[in-house]
């Protein structure tokens, strides 16, 4: 069978520590910002008390069940698994002088298990969580001190796992901080744009320092950034809609511009002036930012439209990004519009802009799965969604885009980030747990499990 996918294409899946591990205070782990969001990114921030509980506290218990799950991923032929390190397992409060050995040892065991099956780890340093101690005692990313604490953490894990992990990411969906500041930068909802952009600047400097540390400690390693791929189309060809679309796309592309080009883009000077935002940037910051990522990774779930028509803007919907619906597209159960061609467009946009390899590290369909009387789960809708998107990845490769791999989001059911739901399922593997936390946590293969195994085995040749 012929295929246009590269010979060493990294097929796999992606999860996040706070959405699968559970064991939220086990082996010395500290409280993270995610632990204080038991109802998800859009829920309230809740102080934790002894004896209380949240659905993410157990999640799918990956912390204890990872050998079983890794074996299932290997059965599908995974060449790569993206996950994250829970920063609070390594530095429980974030500002300790020495790391927590029990936390470090857990990830040693996890990476060793992956190595048994020749699965390449792709590891995110900070995925929608940070130590709550840094928020409470230091002001989160609003404080310049947090740069140093993050660099210490990054250097600690690079040194520890330098022989086991060669592919790294800094911050998950770093541009999301504009829309959910507590999740992204540890600032309270309602923070000023001035405060948010200053915190984002600190995070961009920390990302660059992590890139430099990775290059020093793991010379044969590669480290990328991670963007929420929020590609927007103009709703009409009115020049005003075209201009507004340019400006709104720049709001998220700005992060990639800094991380891949090593400096703030010129257009941000006008943006800051127009918005009366004054970001403190030191000469050392500018030097630090010159250290650029090796590749661009991103999530892709949907596109949206932009219009200057305020009445239509009031209809906007989506996940973290509020987008005006595209009248030409269908939507998922959660109102996310399905646009496979948009993935090809995004890949071409990013590759033309940065000329660096791309890695699609999240893409998937959240849906309500039904367990049939015989125990089967016939998720043909998920197969169709993933097939259509992967066909467009192939088209982008034909366009000349260099792509390192594809890790679909949630290869095993997990707690959704936005609302901490189990009913919004992404996986090829069903986990017996519901939104109230009931269930046995039993794992079960869906129809898509066998389909994806065929795609990986054929290196994409079975796509239709």
Compact summary:
This is 6-phospho-beta-glucosidase. Pfam families: Glyco_hydro_1. The chain has helices at residues 17-20, 62-75, 87-90, 101-116, 132-138, 145-161, 181-185, 193-217, 239-261, 267-274, 283-289, 310-313, 340-354, 380-398, 447-457; strands spanning 10-14, 80-84, 120-126, 167-171, 222-228, 232-234, 295-299, 304-306, 358-362, 403-409, 429-431, 443-445.
Q: Which structural class is indicated by helix and strand composition?
A: alpha/beta
- The ordered H/E elements are EHHEHHEHHEHHEEHHHEEHHEHEEEH
The end-to-end distance, rounded to whole angstroms, is 13 Å
Shape verdict: globular
For this structure, the CATH topology is: TIM Barrel
Average residue-wise pLDDT? 96
Bin the helical content: 25-40%
For the biggest β-sheet, the strand order reads: 1-2-3-4-5-7-9-10
Radius of gyration: 21 Å
| CATH architectural type | Alpha-Beta Barrel
Beta-strand portion reads: 5-15%
Number of structurally distinct domains: 1
CATH superfamily: Glycosidases
Top-tier CATH class: Alpha Beta
């Amino acid at each position: 069978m012929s295929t246009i996918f590269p010979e060493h294409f990294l097929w796999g899946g992606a999860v996040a520590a706070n959405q699968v591990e559970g064991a939220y205070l086990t082996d010395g782990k500290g409280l993270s910002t995610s632990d204080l969001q038991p109802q998800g990114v859009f829920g309230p921030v809740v102080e934790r008390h002894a004896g209380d509980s949240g659905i993410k506290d157990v999640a799918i218990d990956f912390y204890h069940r990872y050998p079983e799950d890794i074996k299932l991923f290997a059965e599908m032929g995974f060449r790569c698994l993206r996950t994250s390190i829970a920063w609070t397992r390594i530095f429980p409060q974030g500002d300790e002088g020495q790391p927590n050995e029990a936390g470090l040892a857990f990830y040693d065991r996890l990476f060793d298990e992956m190595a048994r099956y020749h699965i390449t780890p792709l590891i995110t340093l900070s995925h929608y969580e940070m130590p709550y101690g840094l928020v409470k005692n230091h002001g989160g990313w609003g404080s310049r001190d947090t740069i140093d604490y993050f660099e210490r953490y990054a250097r600690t894990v690079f040194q520890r796992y330098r022989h086991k992990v060669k592919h790294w990411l800094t911050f998950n969906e770093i541009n999301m901080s504009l829309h959910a500041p507590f999740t992204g930068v540890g600032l309270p909802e309602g923070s000023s744009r001035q405060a948010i952009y200053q915190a984002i600047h600190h995070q961009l400097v920390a990302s660059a320092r992590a890139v430099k540390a990775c290059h020093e400690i793991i010379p044969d390693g590669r480290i990328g950034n991670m963007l929420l791929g929020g590609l927007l189309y103009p709703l009409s060809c009115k020049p005003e809609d075209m201009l507004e679309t340019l400006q709104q796309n720049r709001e998220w592309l700005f992060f990639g511009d800094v991380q891949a080009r090593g400096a703030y883009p010129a257009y941000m000077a006008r943006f800051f002036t127009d918005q009366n935002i004054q970001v403190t940037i030191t000469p050392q910051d500018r030097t630090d930012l010159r250290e650029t990522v090796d590749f661009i990774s991103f999530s892709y779930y949907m596109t949206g439209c932009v219009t200057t028509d305020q009445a239509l803007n009031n209809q906007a919907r989506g996940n973290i990004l509020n987008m005006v619906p595209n009248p030409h597209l269908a939507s998922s159960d959660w109102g996310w519009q399905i646009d496979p061609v948009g993935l090809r467009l995004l890949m071409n946009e990013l590759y033309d802009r940065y000329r660096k390899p791309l890695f699609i590290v999240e893409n998937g369909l959240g849906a309500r799965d039904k367990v049939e009387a015989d125990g089967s789960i016939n998720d043909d809708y998920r197969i169709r969604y993933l097939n259509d998107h992967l066909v467009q990845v192939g088209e982008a490769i034909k366009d000349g885009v260099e792509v390192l791999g594809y890790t679909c989001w949630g290869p095993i059911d997990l707690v959704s980030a936005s609302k901490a739901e189990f009913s919004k399922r992404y996986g090829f593997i069903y986990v017996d747990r519901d939104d109230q936390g009931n269930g046995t946590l039993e794992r079960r293969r869906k129809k898509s499990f066998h389909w994806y195994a065929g795609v990986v085995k054929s290196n994409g040749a079975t796509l239709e």
